[in-house]
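Need residues for this backbone.
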């Protein structure tokens, strides 16, 4: 008699700042491997959808296809995933392109054995033991998971928000800053808070290019000098 608990049977969802599980899988672009993209310096946005030929998923694919150039400008490789066959994916993509005048240029994994879905915790049995929920994993060029989002089957994702998240993470990496609530490209960013009393006193006095609300909360426009 097995002593395995229900918790032990559920794959653990990879966490932020952990290495993304590498995989090799069949897709609409042939066999693909996650590390082949990250090793070339690309970011990867791996996302799952519940099923082909479903209305909410179709609207998401249309918007992703329409914004493909925006992801490319940010050096982001889109990879879709669902537990459908490659033939189903191809037929659905052709149907999307026919009715919406868009071109789906990114690969979609045919995850029939749930290998990728299980590795990333995309199957939530309380919802469905066959369909993947709407999961999004942002993976940086080092192969590290930087952010993850999960949505219920009924909720379509906002592509503008996915692009905003990528912009914010890339800005943070390039400038050693953080981004405030509702940040959009071009808005002021947050300067890291001081970690010593002396630096806190210095920050409270202000500085060139820095807007100080208090010692722990300061903003600046990128390109402005910090104290």
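Answer:
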């Amino acid at each position: 008699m097995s002593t395995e608990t229900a918790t032990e049977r559920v794959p653990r969802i990879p966490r932020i700042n952990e290495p993304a599980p590498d995989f090799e899988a069949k897709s609409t672009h042939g066999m693909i491997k996650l590390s082949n993209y990250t090793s070339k310096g690309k970011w990867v946005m791996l996302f799952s959808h519940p099923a082909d030929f479903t209305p909410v998923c179709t609207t998401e694919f249309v918007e992703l296809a329409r914004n493909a150039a925006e992801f490319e400008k940010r050096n982001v490789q889109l990879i879709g995933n669902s537990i459908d066959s490659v033939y189903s994916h191809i037929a659905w993509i052709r149907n999307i392109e026919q009715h919406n005048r868009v071109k789906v240029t990114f690969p979609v994994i045919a995850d029939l054995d749930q290998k990728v879905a299980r590795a990333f915790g995309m199957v939530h049995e309380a919802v469905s033991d066959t369909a993947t929920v709407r999961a999004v994993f942002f993976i940086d060029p080092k192969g590290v998971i930087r952010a993850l989002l999960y949505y219920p089957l009924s909720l379509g994702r906002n592509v503008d928000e996915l692009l905003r998240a990528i912009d914010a993470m890339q800005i943070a990496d390039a400038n050693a800053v953080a981004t405030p609530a509702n940040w959009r490209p071009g808005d002021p960013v947050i300067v890291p808070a001081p970690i010593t009393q002396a630096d806190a006193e210095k920050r409270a006095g202000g500085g060139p290019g820095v807007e100080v609300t208090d010692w722990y909360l300061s903003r600046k426009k990128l390109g402005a000098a910090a104290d």
